[in-house]
Amino acid sequence: MLKIAPARIFSFRVKVTTKKMKNLLCLLFSLFTLQTYSQTTEENMKPAAKRDSGYAPVNGLKMYYEIYGVGKPLILIHGGVGAIEMWGSVLTTLSQNHSVIAVDLQAHGRTADIDRPLSFELMADDIVALIKYVKLDRADIMGYSLGGGVALQVAIRHPGIVNKLVVVSAPCKSDGWYPEIRSQMKQTGATGAEGMKQSPLYQLYKRLAPKPQDWPVLFTKLGQLLSKDYDWTLEVKQMKITTMIVVGDADAIRMTSTVEFFQLLGGAQRDAGWDGRGQPKSELAVLPNMTHYTISNSHALAIAVIPFLGKKD
Hints:
By secondary structure, the chain is of the alpha/beta class.
């Protein structure tokens, strides 16, 4: 059995002059916090061996990607202000049975920004173009937080390219977030970016980004995206893709909204019965003792997802 030590979470100090700004910076750091890779002992698994990496010319972007492992293809999409590194040991575990293609979204990580807004739909189209670039017909798609919304849009806009879908800590409509989270999301912008220069997120961005000076641009565009309301209820209800929803039991997503999301996929509607005939193909996993800020690098996430991805439809 793998023994993964808990991932460490960075801390930092920020000088702020208003309570509003302090709350905003706390939200930005916690909502998009980047954990280090899990610390392992010698008898535990080694980090995944990178099989390939490069930049794919997609929709005007030079999208950075890395490929690990061999097997059924799985696309991993990180959360906001993150990069491939956000997945930590989850990537390592999943690559033991899959060909994992991890990406850096527009304006994130090693993928430089271009002259267009950030949107779930445009980033979803980028993922589809990348899948075609690496010469795949179909793939499983897994996204976390911001990446979960992108993954869901891939399934909505391009269902023929998705085998299975995993949405981690992301709602199908904007009011699925707790009200205070939504309120603070709408305050994201260049001012918050300046304060976040004291964080390890900025240190990672400065190390990876082709143009580190675009840090405030990322926050401005992300703020514009997060301030918009969206509701994909009707589209999700019409989806035919086998989907797994994963949240923490102390997530930033309202649990009632998560159950409603699952109901749209045919779940949580009736007793499955003795023979399980009423059980939907889609699944819901609520991970115990897990928050929005710890789930993306949790070994428990990988262990929950692996059986779902391996199950035949």
